[in-house]
Amino acid sequence: MGVQRIYTPNAAYQKFEVLKTNRNKRYRYRQFFVEGVRNINEAVENGWTIDSFIYSFEKRLSDWAGNLLQQVPTQLNYELTTGLMAEISGKTDTSEICTIVRMRQLSLPDLPSGEIPLLVLFDRPANKGNLGTVIRSCDALGVDALVITGHAVDLYDPETVGASMGSLFKLPVLAEPDQAAVRDWIGDLRQRHAGFRVVGTSAHADRNIDDADLTQPCLLVIGNETEGMSNYYYSICDELVRIPMAENCVATSLNVACAATVILYEATRQRKNRQTGPDQ
């Protein structure tokens, strides 16, 4: 492990900025920028490759940060002035330490699907905060894997990573823009899991989510924040469900991340009741 000290916004420092702001460059380098204690801890604990730590040489580090530097192998660490550290950190209170994390190479066949899989597909998410929150909810509510399709916001954008609160590093998540690849993956799931169903979500569906059977192997499809599911995903759904809302409410729909959380809770509730019985 080497250490490079940075006093001015040189080429190495400019790369940090690029990883934060430029999607294409992130994928060219196969790296992304991470800050926040929980995100960093989860990246380390879940075996992600940490290429670099970034911290200030002008400020005493906490025991936590010092232990990271001693225990986590890296390629090259960077020591910055406090001024540069404040500029590169996206937080009001400057982060003590930031990381450059290497992207993982995943494909659809790599995604886990347990004995009775609960999978989620998010079609063309347009908001980074929503995507990060859906990742967090999927992790919290026992989803096996999340697939992001179409022209979507970047999974590795700092805002997405931050909103996931560390769940990005635990939950298997894959961005797959190739519709044909997704189609083949769903076809394979149908062959491997008897009774596998694709359940779409729509505010205009006729069936309430609590009337649907989510105890069977299934893929829940969540649509774009504005346009909902694309025509293709409508066409392959075995069933469409909606969240029932109060008759006198003004709201016509829920935020997509809120809706996904409600639907996933219902799926988890049904599966738990099937295992233990509703009265236990």
Keywords, please?
10 helices; alpha/beta; 280 residues; Alpha/beta knot; 2 domains; 12 strands
Give an overview of the whole structure:
This protein has helices at residues 11-21, 23-29, 37-45, 63-71, 82-88, 128-140, 158-164, 179-192, 231-236, 256-276, and strands at residues 2-6, 31-35, 50-56, 76-80, 97-102, 118-123, 145-149, 173-176, 197-201, 207-208, 218-222, 239-242. The chain is an alpha/beta fold and 280 residues long. The protein folds into 2 domains: 2-102, 2-Layer Sandwich (60s Ribosomal Protein L30, Chain: A), CATH 3.30.1330; 108-276, Alpha/beta knot, CATH 3.40.1280. It has a 7-stranded parallel sheet with strand order 8-7-6-11-9-12-10, sandwiched between helices. α6 (128-140) runs parallel beside α10 (256-276). The protein is elongated and about 60 Å long. The relative contact order is 0.13.
Reading side by side through the largest sheet, how are the strands ordered? Answer: 8-7-6-11-9-12-10
Structural class by SSE content: alpha/beta
CATH architecture of the largest domain, by name, is 3-Layer(aba) Sandwich
What composes the largest sheet?
7 strands, parallel
DSSP helix fraction? 25-40%
Number of strands: 12
Specify Rg, calculated over alpha carbons.
21 Å
Question: Quick check: average pLDDT?
Answer: 94
SSE topology string:
EHHEHEHEHEEHEHEHEEEHEH
Low-confidence stretches: none
Q: How far apart are the termini?
A: 54 Å
- Quick one: overall form? elongated
Strand content: 15-25%
